[in-house]
Amino acid sequence: MKAVVYEKYGPPEVLKLTQIEKPVPKDNEVLVKIHATTAHIGDVRMRKFLVPLMFWLPIRFYLGLFGPKRKILGMELSGEVETVGKDVKKFKPGDEVWSSTWFGAYAEYLCLPEDGVMTLKPSVMSHEEAAAGAVTGGCTALSLLRKGGINRGQKVLIYGASGSVGTYAVQLAKHFGAEVTGVCSTTNLEMVKSLGADEVIDYTKEDFSTTGETYDIILDTVAKSSLSAGVKSLKKNGRYIFAVYDMPHIILMLRLLLTSSKRVVIAMDSENVENVNFLKELIEAGKLKAVIDRTCPVEQIVDAHRYVEKGHKKGHVVITLN
């Protein structure tokens, strides 16, 4: 089968399309024929080994000290169950599924455990749409907004509103009844408005912290907002939420715990079947949609990674297989 393999950390060119042996499912696994995956920012970071300094050593041991131990990237997928192990009860051949995998989706086939983060995909979505982030970005946005205590009538600002987490965060915040301001670049303003944002701010022309507005929740999906300015833009008891973080965010979290009623919330593991099913219900009810910037065949994986690495994509870059 075709698979994209990388033998060393580095630029997009380390990704090589090659032929490898088709896997065989264990008794508790299903063999999924993958139709679509994504060029996820997480894949880019692992390919480059771009991780926060505070996590450098443990993640290096986990991913591979001298080179990648898990040589096939790909964090999310949509596909069709081809065969199942003898102990599998939840799925059968022919089922269309979507899943979070962390590794392995850059291939035509992948074996996944029955009890993993996998469910039947939304019936209203194509495989390309289903692959586009709901089981990763959508779950992250949902978990963080819930941890931030989102409620109806609150004012919520989404920084990085046009990205993989941000596009879902805007829609989910509106679903929960918040008044939403999205921060993005000029070219993405209309798209973010179309997702339901009540206001949009072009960060290339205006700093949200200078508008005089204050917010119950600020969700920074890209960790690029000014920390001091963000804290000042929070209401009393406000929550400053980060989808990615490093040591300065940890220090800010500890400082606010000691000196303020404002709090920092950081991303933790959010991908579980309950969250995926919640998002699936919203999708099938027409209340949540995927945003796809572009779709590329797996043969163009290097170009796709190069594009994502620039940091200007709208939503997701989908990779098609099979």
Please, could you describe this protein's structure?
The protein is an alpha/beta fold. It folds into 2 domains: 2-133 and 290-320, Medium-chain alcohol dehydrogenases, catalytic domain (Quinone Oxidoreductase, Chain A, domain 1, Alpha-Beta Complex); 136-266, Rossmann fold. Helix content is 28%, strand content 26%. It has 10 helices and 15 strands. It has helices at residues 41-48, 56-63, 127-131, 134-147, 166-175, 189-194, 227-232, 247-259, 273-284, 301-309, and strands at 2-5, 16-19, 29-38, 76-84, 96-100, 109-113, 118-120, 155-159, 179-184, 199-202, 215-220, 234-242, 263-266, 292-297, 316-320. The strands form 3 sheets. Strands 3, 4, 5, 6, 7, 14 and 15 form a 7-stranded mixed β-sheet that branches. Helix 6 (189-194) links the parallel strand 9 (179-184) and strand 10.
Give the helices and strands, then pairings.
Blueprint: E1 2-5, E2 16-19, E3 29-38, H1 41-48, H2 56-63, E4 76-84, E5 96-100, E6 109-113, E7 118-120, H3 127-131, H4 134-147, E8 155-159, H5 166-175, E9 179-184, H6 189-194, E10 199-202, E11 215-220, H7 227-232, E12 234-242, H8 247-259, E13 263-266, H9 273-284, E14 292-297, H10 301-309, E15 316-320
Parallel strand pairs: 8-9, 8-11, 9-10, 11-12, 12-13, 14-15
Antiparallel strand pairs: 1-2, 3-4, 3-6, 3-15, 4-5, 5-7
Quick description:
The chain is an alpha/beta fold and 322 residues long.
Q: What features would you highlight for this structure?
A:
322 residues; Rossmann fold; 2 domains; globular
